[in-house]
Write a sequence for this structure.
């Protein structure tokens, strides 16, 4: 599908960002392992693609410092945060400077070696099956190969540019 016929003016960036801020979403830290080093970023653009086979997508800004690691990875993990883990989100999102982002939170190696947050609400370990560039971002499609759920089942949300803990 190639859509090139633009019949309307495109909205400006500020208007678009303000509108998008009203779409509440879960907060996740997406992680990978590349060259023996751990990488990660905070993402709010995560969604299910299919349950047969279990597939999800996540978007990463190609200007992200973590992008080169995700550009060459075969596996990644989407760690959905819980209330009380706002600092982890801020560190991986670049709001708080940290020389080692993984000093924040309790991390273990997943099935494929990627970092998995021990006390995430839910973690989806994925095998990368496709990647598509769109504007400033790359959309990563992952086939889910492992899921870890926290019994507490609480999820940190983000809406109107602030965290919502329930």
């Amino acid at each position: 599908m190639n859509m090139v016929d633009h019949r309307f003016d495109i909205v400006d960036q500020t208007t678009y960002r303000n509108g998008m801020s009203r779409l509440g979403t879960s907060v996740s830290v997406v992680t990978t392992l590349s060259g023996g080093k751990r990488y990660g970023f905070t993402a709010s653009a995560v969604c299910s693609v299919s349950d047969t086979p279990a597939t999800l997508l996540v978007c990463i800004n190609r200007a992200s410092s973590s992008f080169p690691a995700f550009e060459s990875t075969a596996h990644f993990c989407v760690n959905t945060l819980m209330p009380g883990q706002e600092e982890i989100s801020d560190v991986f999102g670049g709001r708080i400077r940290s020389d080692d982002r993984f000093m924040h939170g309790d991390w273990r190696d997943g099935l494929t070696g990627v970092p998995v947050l021990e006390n995430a609400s839910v973690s989806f370990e994925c095998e990368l099956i496709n990647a598509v560039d769109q504007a400033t971002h790359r959309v990563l499609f992952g086939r889910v190969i492992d899921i870890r759920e926290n019994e507490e089942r609480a999820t940190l949300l983000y809406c109107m540019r602030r965290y919502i803990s329930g």
